[in-house]
Amino acid sequence: MTAILDLTAAQAAAAIERGDLDPGELFGIYRERAAADELGAWTWVADAAPVAFDVGAPLRGVPLAVKDLFCTEGVPSQAGSRILEGYRPPYTATCVERLQTAGATLLGKTNQDEFAMGSSNENSGFGPVLNPWDRSRVPGGSSGGSAAAVAAGSAPWALGTDTGGSIRQPAALCGIVGLKPTYGTVSRFGMIAFACSLDQAGPLTRDVTDAALLYRHMAGADARDATAVGHPDEIGLPSAERLDGVRLGVPVELAGGEGIEPGVLAAFERSLALARELGATVEEVSLPTADRALSAYYVIAPAECSSNLARFDGVRYGLRVEADDLLTMYTETRHDGFGDEVKRRILIGTYALSSGYYDAYYGRAQRVRTLIARELAAVFERVDAIVTPTSPGVAFELGSKSADPLAMYLNDFFTVPMSLAGVPAISIPCGLADGLPVGLQVAGAAFSENRLLDIAYALEQGLGFDGSPARGGATP
Amino acid sequence: MSDVRYEPVIGLEIHVQLSTRTKMFCACPLSFGEPPNTRTCPVCLGLPGTLPVANAEAIHHGLMIGLALGSQLAARSIFHRKNYFYPDLPKGYQISQYDEPLCSGGRLGEVRIHRVHLEEDAAKLTHVGASGRIHGSDASIVDFNRGGTPLAEIVTEPDLRSPEQASEWLRLLRTTLRRLGVSDVNMEEGSLRCDANISIRPTGSDELGTKTELKNMNSFRFIERGIRAEIARQEQLLRAGEPVVQETLHFDPRTEAITSLRSKEEAHDYRYFPEPDLPPVTITEAMLERARAGLPELPLEREQRLASELGLNAESARLLSWRSELGDYFEAALAAGGGVESQPLANWLGELTTRAGGEDPAATGVEPAQLAALAALVSSGAVTQGAARQVLDRMVAAGGGDPAAIVEAEGLGAVGGADELAPIVRAALEANPDVAEKLRDGDMKPIGVIIGHVMRETRGRADGKEVTAIVRAELGLGG
After folding, report:
1. What is the pLDDT of residues A372-395, one digit of tens each?
2. Domain enclosing residue B465, as ranges
3. Considering A77, A81, A120, A142, which one is annotated as catalytic?
4. Which of A105, A141, A269, A444 qualifies as a cystine partner to A452, CB 3.0-4.6 A?
């Protein structure tokens, strides 16, 4: 059984294809572990294995964890919110449907920050998720359940979504790989929206190869999503061993290491040294507007969310708090159904869009966004990828930042510029600091996923990160 | 002050349901009275996770409307979200257009167009209980069949000056839209809905008074009545020295009462912002080309043609153009041949329309070719005007028929020629010796008595001019 758990998803699929592994047995092992999970990573686990596995399809029936906010027909899809408690949609998200067609089997739904708003998974309406490396710490967020499940070995791989870092940061804090693809390459149809212009689905996996394999079957245009254009290239499985000729850029704004934990900085610098050893050149690049990215992000995302979340009014589905009149029903339902962080962002967003404030907030934030996208595009003319730590720190103690939203928002400092620009970025584990994983972010130009995956793969081979302690930790 | 005369200033906002195959942002077919909530899908129900995809055919319809109204067409189609809470709006926002409408400016007849934009219709609410409105109702029932139906909102400049002019112009707009084939434009079924912005000002003033918005006028009759009632209400206020308050008003067609819909403190901040789920679509030359190619002859162009090419008088040209069904009937009759002249044919169509109760003449069953044949019989002198009216009565009564056959069967052919008429005229003169005396003396005034006598005898089949000529010949008065 340990041997099976040690297989990556791609390895498991290959074993099934060879006839060395029974997909039912694989599903059973993971189902049992998911059902016994003590980290709070799951909000729903399949009762039993499906009647049949599609072993002829490329993913060979390998089980898949899916973030709660992906709509899955007949299965609870609550986006981590009490306002959607028990909601079972009548349809399945395009991205999940594509993966099922490719042979993935739905193992369960994973916990998350409510409506993907958070960086610690403490904002879930269904309780926090614990970090499998240290249960007193957060797994990151908002895809914290997916990251913890993969790291702890209760799922071979998982789907997440990234709006400002919600795949990359929890991947970093849990010692796994997380890819935020180019905006528009994966359909958003069926993803319960946080911020439409930023939300993007992506894989959370044990290694870079799994990320490439899962992403390959997620990407594609969708007639039901006008913003989904698909990927111009076939996504290959990475194989680069060296980085000769690869130009990496490190933002000069990072040079002082200000605000970055020493252990994170050390792991980052070791990664840069490895990249040079593998043949890459590392140079400084400048992103002068990047320090405004967080401010712009925390206007644009709340503005969109304030509108996206208006539909949760108690009229048609989810929670309804009965009242004598319509307005009271609306307000009581939203009062009881939404958590504090969601309410905070609805308030901020409503304010930012209000008549008389639009230009000063939303309009200006969009202009900053345009500048950042241009700056990044210019940098990607010079270098193949930008590298940064994924998060300024390692997994923090539960509750340690809950009272200070600004400190919490700083978790997204390195990840948000790429989200605003819509460009792809991957986080891979690059070592431990005080026994906790550190993530390395590699970001590239729009649609450069194949190159990013190759760079990440070469570094991964050289880094030789061992994630098995977290899997052992989940089954004492 | 009480002798001040007021002039109304009226602008219209017209919502037109576009007759596309599917809804504005999803693949649901449009609803035509199906059972409630059977024409819905996760998208138009606003279920979590769903996304809109703009209906290209609706944009095409919008471009056609813009071209027909002479509007400036936008370089791109961009949608905004209009945010507000209401149970008929499942997403909590309506996808509409804001600062870049598809069509800007333009004109139809004497009225300037402000803008035309595309949006989605809301669901249909039915309020159960005595009030009939959401406040004070026992329950409200939502039918999402209508939700997501494509709408074009056409906003005019405040160029209308009377209730009659408003409803007349709205008929022209309706005919224009019907000719374009972009909508069913049926007010009773709600595919054409009209709100009016109304203010009044002292006649001769250039300033605009405070306007109110009057909603829920679902027929041409109610539009005239509603606007008239609101003008009267405003005038009464001003004459009493009270201000007109800017507000949205509801017109009750049954009682003609006008009540306030929303109070000012509920004024909405719609928090418009660009719809992030719909990337702007560039309006290409190919799209414009296709819209231009789809344009039929429009009512005002037809009016021009009927007057200048066919020589119809202004009244006929306008009537036949502003009411497509009349124009189409007319042109079908004209095409049927028989050498009938335009203006007499138009007049005979007027006769037929009167007999159809003012509605579509085709409903009488009289075919255009049959009407043309009747007009031709009159023109050739084979049937007199009076007899032809009797023939038409019989044609309508029978749901159509060959006029020549009716003339033959009923013996309604004109009595012509001295051979037939002279004996009847002689008898008439003999029966009215005093009249004959005056006529002989050159006093032609009482000739009507003789003509009337002849007409009675011939059941209207004689021609008045011919009778006069025979009278003169009989009395030796010369031509």
Report:
1. 999 999 999 999 999 999 999 999
2. 418-474
3. A142
4. A444
